[in-house]
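Whiteboard transcription, Tuesday session. T.W. wrote the structure tokens on the left side:
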């Protein structure tokens, strides 16, 4: 992991720190709002670590790192220690490996505004090879609890794993997985107990960066087993996409440029400008090389029925001149999506919304489905509405039918959006009476 990833991992550890099983000795309340500035200064000071591509030396540098005298007492006040996440080498490593263990001690602190943070011990195990070119890591955070006047937020059973190998181009290729058992938000009621507002079960986030010859690929997948709010439950949500055909050279230049920018002593404004330039250059090179956003799956299930979208977005033969005007490269956009919605899901949702709104005049689901099919926007196949959405040559085509998007937006504006306020009409001026 490079310096940025190390800082991000450290910040993530502090933010996702897991709830104390046993009470700790009471301490004076911390000033409200201190956590954010302390975390920002912590990340800022970690940037002082040298830009070290060797994973072993990078971890050794962090293990010996000490925060500034100004920051240490603030860390001690909030986290109970001047080194919130110490890292050290451990013995017993297999031949050709170097092992490290990092631990975040269980702790709790309360702010002056009544908000209290508490967490159990967090542990990370990291292994590198002797050459410092590969790293694997695993970790766990049992729980985090945040309570405030009138509400609470909890996260339990957090864990992560990852593998990375430094390529010859300097980019760290590999994968990472983060899993969270349950996230819950609750509100305190007048009766003295609490009411669950929303709960997310079984969250999994996966990402990977892969080298494929002269090209690279970045992929991401997020899955939630269940989202529960009140009496309703979305059984499964999935978002998976890939960015393919990325020039590996452009990715390496972006990585190198970001490291150089982070090691500079530029002002925040100058750093932001430099980062924007780096990202813009990378985007142009990727699009010109034929980079494609592939949507492998965006789907959600409700009462056993699943709606889904799959597709891709790319560009046709972009050249440098196309980037001088948004309309030029937008004209070369090529996109195609396949949409699948079960009829039973449409009916279920129509009933739910009608019940919530109490609107007896709401459109009937059967009429809505019939209208969509008769107008040619979808076909009905075994009780499933299917449609394709395409963009090519600046045209929007739905299920083979070209759509005038501008006209539809005007219609939508007239029917849905409130009319623009008009200036009051001035009263008609009456003629002056004739002089006697």
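and on the right, the sequence the group agreed on:
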């Amino acid at each position: 992991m490079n310096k940025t990833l190390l800082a991000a991992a450290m910040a993530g550890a502090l933010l996702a720190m897991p709830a104390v099983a046993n009470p700790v000795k009471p301490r004076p309340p911390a000033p409200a709002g201190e956590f954010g500035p302390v975390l920002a200064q912590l990340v800022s000071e970690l940037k002082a670590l040298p830009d070290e591509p060797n994973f072993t030396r990078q971890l050794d540098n962090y293990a010996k790192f000490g925060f500034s005298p100004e920051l240490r007492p603030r860390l001690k006040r909030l986290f109970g220690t001047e080194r919130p996440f110490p890292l050290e080498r451990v013995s017993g490593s297999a031949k050709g490996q170097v092992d490290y263990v990092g631990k975040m001690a269980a702790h709790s602190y309360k702010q002056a505004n009544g908000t209290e943070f508490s967490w159990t011990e967090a542990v990370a195990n990291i292994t590198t090879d002797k050459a410092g070119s590969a790293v694997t890591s695993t970790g766990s955070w049992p729980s985090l609890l945040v309570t405030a006047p009138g509400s609470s937020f909890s996260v339990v059973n957090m864990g992560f794993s990852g593998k990375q190998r430094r390529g010859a181009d300097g980019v760290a290729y590999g994968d990472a997985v983060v899993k969270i058992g349950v996230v819950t938000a609750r509100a305190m009621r007048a009766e003295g107990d609490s009411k669950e507002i929303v709960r997310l079960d079984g969250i999994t986030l996966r990402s990977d960066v892969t080298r494929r010859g002269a090209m690279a690929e970045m992929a991401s997948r997020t899955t939630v087993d269940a989202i529960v709010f009140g009496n309703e439950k979305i059984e499964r949500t999935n978002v998976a996409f890939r960015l393919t055909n990325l020039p590996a050279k452009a990715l390496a230049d972006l990585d190198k440029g970001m490291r150089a920018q982070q090691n500079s002593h530029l002002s925040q404004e100058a750093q932001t400008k430099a980062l924007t330039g780096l990202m813009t250059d990378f985007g142009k090179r990727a699009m010109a090389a034929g980079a494609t956003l592939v949507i492998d799956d965006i789907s959600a299930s409700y009462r056993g029925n699943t709606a889904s979208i799959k597709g891709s977005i790319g560009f046709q033969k972009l050249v440098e001149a196309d980037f001088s005007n948004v309309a030029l490269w937008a004209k070369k956009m090529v996109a195609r999506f396949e949409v699948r919605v079960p009829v039973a899901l449409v009916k279920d949702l129509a009933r739910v919304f009608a019940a919530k709104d109490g609107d007896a005049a709401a459109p009937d689901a059967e009429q809505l489905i019939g209208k969509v099919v008769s107008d040619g926007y979808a076909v009905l196949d075994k009780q499933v509405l299917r449609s394709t959405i395409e963009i090519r040559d600046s045209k929007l085509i739905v299920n083979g039918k070209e759509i005038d998007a501008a006209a539809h937006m005007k219609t939508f504006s007239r029917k849905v959006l409130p009319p623009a306020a008009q200036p009051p009409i001035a009263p008609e001026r009456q003629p002056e009476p004739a002089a006697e």
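Someone added at the bottom: The CA atoms of residues 49 and 62 lie 7 Å apart.
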